[in-house]
Amino acid sequence: MNLTFYDKIFKPREYVLPNGKKAYKKASRAPIYAILILAMSALSVKITGFDMEVLVSRIGQFFVILGEMFPPNADYMPKIWEPLFDTIKMSLLGSVVGALLSVPFAMLASTNVCPSKIIVSVMRVMFSLIRTLPTIVIALVATLVFGLGTLAGTVAIAVFSFGYIGKLTYEEIETVDMGAFEAMQAMGATRSEAFISAIVPQVLPFYLSNCLFNFEGNVRYAAVLGYVGAGGIGLILNEKISWREYPSVGMILVALFVTVFIIETVSRALRKKLV
Amino acid sequence: MNQRIQQAYEKRPKDWVYNLITAVIVVGLLIWSGSAVETSGSTQDGGQIALNVLSGIFHPDLSFLFDLSTKGVPYLMLETVCIAFLGTIVGAIISIPLAFISASNLTPLPIAFIGRLIIMAARTIPAFVYGLMFIRVTGPGAFAGLLTMGVCSIGMISKMYIEAIEDLDTRVIESLDAAGCNTWQKIRYGILPQLMPNFASTAIYRFDINLRDATILGMVGAGGFGAPLIFAMNSYRWNEAGALLAGLIVLILIIEFISTRIRVKLTRG
């Protein structure tokens, strides 16, 4: 039985079994975790100025804006359709472009397909760097480079999808059963032929399912991108909020809710069929 | 042998009609979505701007990056970590009752459906709308940020919690029942050990995401490094933005490394 440093301080409890053997139960680690979490919470409370009293006494204010949103202004609906469809189009095109572009890079980032260790690690660092960049920052840079409008939003979504799908895909490629690949090679197929007929069928359902999931999330993300001028429903949402036309804001949110609900339902049904 | 292979090959599913229809739908959707790509066209020096961005990111403002006062990058990062940490805890605590209400194996179907609807509604409202609502409650600052973060986390956390609860192995509870345990003992030894690793792992994962999403809070003045970052970028001070992004990238990579290790440990037990 190996004792760690912690076990030497807090001795394991000893049980004598009926047959005379001794069994040890290591002391629980829970106190350490509890202390760490409490210390971190205390620090966070101090730095962020968390105050339960303020929260309890003023929480009513939270519902003021929410209350003003109801009933939603149904007359505003005709003006929502276009930006709403813009948002869907942006996220659809962005997701597809990003997902397709990520495939070759994901192949280069998986150790069982790419023989060079250097390329693999370069690709992985690239993927994790792209994933650390906040989408809103990418969108802001894109609006500066491509001008205001949906193109900037599409680019931002494509970059985000590239990082996200790329990572999931190379992890998926790595866990694939390589037996079929080797058998194909032994039969005389080239590496690329073997990849297409042995690895692609194993990865494809998961890849498509991840793409759909990513698209679902992107529709919701795209709603935020309008805030920096990258087009779509966020643009009018931001506008109506700054004019304090809360009933219209309510209508936009209802429209967004229904759209997201429909897309999620369809995509969940498709994903169940895939995997 | 060859004949059997031939037969099997002849019997392969012939679903080209289905594939064709799928392909037509996908291509149609793509062409339809292509119609939305438009810009205002003010891109006279887009390439130059892209170069400026890159050079700023590779030449971060070092005095800002290592400024240890409350205006420097390290303090902003610490504040962001604190917002994300408390936000995740708030979100996780709110999610627990919501998840138990919406788990279809515990509650009757209509109630579970209402619970899921509430979770979806909470998820639809974009972060900056929440930010504005909470600023009315607490005033601008980190406090509003952490509340926003908490509410935004509810959607994903409770979804994962619901899945964990629905996967509960009820036979364990039955055997504890047969052994004569009371309700509390059943919860302590039958339910908690099954749920805790899952719940903790979800919360840590969400903490990771919250750290990345913290930029959005800055837009509404809800604390963290978001506001300085957006200001720096809007006024083309790329060196400052570069310093903030460098700090963010290092922070996220460290946190991701730690959280992945903890989660692997949690799932392997």
**What Rg of chain B is obtained from the alpha carbons, in whole angstroms?**
25 Å
Strand composition percent of chain A: under 5%
- CATH homologous superfamily assignment of the largest domain in chain B: MetI-like
SS class of chain A: mainly alpha
- Low-confidence segments of chain B: none
Specify the number of helices of chain B. 12
The CATH architecture of the largest domain in chain B can be named as: Orthogonal Bundle
**In what range is the share of β-strand residues of chain B?**
under 5%
Number of separate helices of chain A: 12
Task: Report what the structure shows.
The complex is a heterodimer of chains A (275) and B (269). Chain A is mostly helical and 275 residues long. Chain A is 75% helix and 3% strand. Chain A has a two-stranded antiparallel sheet. In chain A, strand 1 (13-16) and strand 2 (22-25) form a beta hairpin. In chain A, helix 11 (233-242) packs antiparallel against helix 12. Chain B is mainly α. Chain B folds into 2 domains: 2-34; 50-268, MetI-like (MetI-like fold, Orthogonal Bundle). Helices cover 80% and strands 0% of the residues of chain B. Chain B contains 12 helices and no strands. Chain B has helices at residues 2-10, 16-34, 46-58, 62-65, 73-102, 109-124, 127-138, 142-166, 170-178, 183-219, 226-234, 238-268. The longest helix of chain B is centred in the C-terminal third of the chain and has 37 residues, at 183-219. Chain B starts with a helix and ends with a helix. The model of chain B has no long low-confidence stretch (mean pLDDT 84). At the A-B interface, helix 2, helix 3, helix 4, helix 5 and helix 6 of A face helix 2, helix 3, helix 5, helix 6 and helix 7 of B.
